[in-house]
Amino acid sequence: MKRDFLYHRIPMLLTFAALLGSCGRTSGPKVAPYLDENAPLETRIEDALSRMTLEEKVAVLHAQSKFSSAGVPRLGIPEVWCTDGPHGIRPEVLWDEWDQAGWTNDSCTAFPALTCLAATWNPEMSALYGRSIGEEARYREKDVLLGPGVNIYRLPLNGRNFEYMGEDPYLSSRMVVPYVQGVQTNGVAACVKHFALNNQEVNRTRVNVVVDDRALHEIYLPAFRAAVKEGGAWAIMGAYNRYKGEHCCHNSYLLNDILKKEWGFDGVVISDWGGVHDTKQAIENGLDMEFGSWTNGLSWGASNAYDNYYLARPYLELLRRGEASEATLDDKVRRVLRLIFRTAMNTHKPFGSLNSPEHLAAARRIAGEGMVLLKNDGSVLPFDPGTMKRLLVVGENAVKMMTVGGGSSSLKVRHECTPLEGLRKAAGDGVEVLYERGYVGDVSTDYNGVDSGQDLTETRTAGELLADAVAAAREADAVLFVGGLNKSGHQDCEGADRLSYGLPYGQDTVIEALAAANPRLAVVLVSGNAVAMPWIDRVPAVLEAWFSGSEAGNALADVVFGAVNPSGKLPFSFPVRLEDNGAIALGEYPGGDSVTYREGLFVGYRWLESKGIVPLFAFGHGLSYTTFSISDVRSDRTSLGSDGRIRVSADVTNTGDRAGAEVVQLYIGDEESSLPRPVKELKGFQKVSLAPGETRTVTFDITPEQLQYYDDRQGAWGAEAGRFTAFVGAASDDIRGTVTFELK
Ligand code: BGC
User: Fold this and answer.
1) Alpha-carbon distance 251 to 458, whole Å?
2) Looking at residue 305, what is its pLDDT?
């Protein structure tokens, strides 16, 4: 039943409910407790639960369509409607199919990919993102947004890294919390995914991840924990892969022991689509709602597929035979009811909005703030239209729409401003912006029935394309190459991993040729992953622009023409070679039925620093058009007790001639430890906007909690007394001052 239908009948429902609630009373009609929004949440849940039949209870635990589950029509309890996530609201799909339904009023705002959001290193941008995407979900009457994703970036080949927040547990924790809270202020649940250890797409539905307890707790779980404990997430999605031999959608240790018991999660565990494999495990091991089993809705699957779900008829039969516990059933139903009261039945929630000017502005702002200036010798960027008559743009990613494709995060936007379009608008009348394709990548333009409508066919040969681009480059005042990866299979796309670290489609050759033809060359990478850059020494400027959504082109133009001074910082390392990555170096990827994370907690910069490997671009790196000094790193004391804190401060000054923002980063290293620890780990950051010449003092309060590690011998977090170093700087490889202190 469609939600509107229900709500138009609310007066009728209330009369009916009034009867339910007033039985045996002599006073006037009274609303049944579960319908009374002023009643405490748990009272409403118990009341609703007590009115439900066994069949009704089982019915709310599994899908009834591709993205919805049943309510309890008899009681006026509405359905739950989910949507992807995490970068925009997925177009409406047909009832039982992945293909879009062809609505003409469901075009959304595409927000930048989560890698870009993480690269802002600005929790305020996360809050803006969450609020805005939550408003779009609300407008589309969705109750659960399937996002954000916080799986850790273990290696640069994972096809889904673009949907996540990078390699560091502290950064992703700080960035996920405001996203979740922002979404949920709209009465829409954030469903944090994919819990847990879903760090590759190869063999994703069967691979068993073997990881030590320290890495699990210190690296792979903290962002989920923050989303639950600090963000108060109302839903979490199990992952496809296995851990300890059990699929993560029904994994007793992860779901029962950690999530529900240790973290006190009171929301619903939703399966990934098709991630459930066994009724008994689904019942016992912590899953609450099952989606996507049995059918792809189109070419395979049982008839009456939804009745055949593991948590449908098979569950009901076990219950009827007394072979499944009703207490376990009631726990699941309580969670689903809690979700429904928080979302679908919350009549105080805002109406929401879709594609508003505010959302487009938010997307542009986040995109501009997330772009990372990797290299800049000042000779090209920012472009000065006053000294330029002809700008040549080269590369397929300058014209290819990137919001269509990539898997479940694929979107249908009202308009996507491509880089070429944005650059042409910003360049103004005095600058001619010419375009050459340079190479052909992927000409496909459709995904699940959404077609970007672009015609990317090309008749020239690779040699002709290159020659044309080089000839045009010789005549141009400056050249902007816009390339990178795209959202096609084996690029930045769900369901498969990249096949190599290098740029695809012969782009390295094009970049080398352009650099030889014109020294005023800037390279823009559109990607969600690190790539090799064998040409780095021959290119004066490189910008990582990410997949940046509806406003991609405008945001890129803001940055390259200098209207926005870049302030993004890398949320993951760019190694020189793939073999510099720990998992790859140890040969622990992709595995077969099993993969062992033998690098342990030495992921990303933790690996590089422990091995003394110099990266191409380090975690936390990102330049600006101005310069900053970070000086006088100091602390207010030299030691702290177990209940104390130590305050580390530094002065940051804008030493250039443009306004800009610097992210001051605090890392901590443990000098004496009985267990191996990384050289240093991110424990704080602050983004500071400064006018030219302005100085501000930043302070970080370090508590014993920040000095802890997970002691796998004890199965608990703890900090050891001894010496620590606080490193303060502008990147993990750009430390401007240190202080040492002692934990007593
Ligand atoms: C993905 C999820 C997504 C779901 C629904 C799955 O294939 O792994 O992230 O939310 O599909 O589209």
Assistant:
1) 49
2) 86
Measured in Å, residue 523 CA sits from the centre of ligand 1 at 33
Structure tokens at 712: 């796998």
Q: Taking 80 as the threshold, does the pLDDT of residue 543 lie above it?
A: yes
> Which residues have any ligand 1 atom within 6 Å of their CB?
84-85, 146, 193, 272-273, 408
User: Do 189 and 267 contact (CB within 8 A), yes or no?
Assistant: yes
3-state secondary structure of 718: strand
Mean of the per-residue pLDDT values of the chain? 95
Amino acid at 515: A
193-245, pLDDT tens digit by residue? 999 999 999 999 999 999 999 999 999 999 999 999 999 999 999 999 999 99
**Six-digit token pair at 663?**
């992210």
Q: Which atom of ligand 1 is nearest to the CA of 198?
A: 8
| Domains contained in the chain, CATH given | 5-342 (3.20.20.300), 371-570 (3.40.50.1700), 573-625 (no CATH), 626-743 (2.60.40.10)
Q: Which atom of ligand 1 is nearest to the CA of 240?
A: 8
Count CA atoms closer than 13 A to 722's CA, side-chain side.
14
Residue-wise pLDDT tens digits, 327-353? 999 999 999 999 999 999 999 999 999
For residue 170, give Cα distances in angstroms to 121, 290, 321. 11, 31, 48
Residue of the CA atom closest to atom 12 of ligand 1: 408
Alpha carbons 68 and 96: distance in angstroms, whole number: 10
Residues of the chain with pLDDT > 70, as a percent, come to 95
Q: Which residues are the active-site residues? A: 272
- pLDDT of amino acid 22: 41
Q: Would the pLDDT of 464 be above 80?
A: yes
User: For residue 67, which atom of ligand 1 is closest to its CA?
Assistant: 5
Please give the distance, rounded to the nearest whole angstrom, from the Cα atom of residue 56 to the centre of ligand 1. 26
Number of separate helices (H) and strands (E) present in the chain = 19, 28
Give residue 363's Cα distance to chain centre. 15
Report whether pLDDT(2) > 90.
Answer: no
Quote the strand ranges of 586-659, DSSP E. 594-596, 628-635, 639-640, 646-654
User: What does the alpha-carbon distance between residue 447 and residue 449 come to, in Å, rounded to a whole number?
Assistant: 5
Q: pLDDT tier at 296 (50, 70, 90 boundaries)?
A: low
CB neighbourhood size of 275 (10 A): 26
Residues composing the chain: 744
Q: Name the one residue in this structure whose structure tokens are 């890398």.
A: 570
Query: Cα–Cα distance between 671 and 207 in angstroms, integer?
Result: 37
How far is Cα 603 from Cα 609, in angstroms, rounded to an integer?
10
- Residue identified by tokens 């589309």 is 140
- The pLDDT of residue 24 is above 90: no
Give the helix/strand (H/E) hosting 369: helix 357-370
Residue 30 has pLDDT above 90, yes or no: no
Taking the centre of ligand 1 as the mean of its atom positions, its distance from the CA of residue 272, in whole angstroms, is 6
CA distance 555 to 485: 18
Give nearest CA residue, ligand 1 atom 9: 408
d(C-alpha 679, C-alpha 676), whole Å: 9
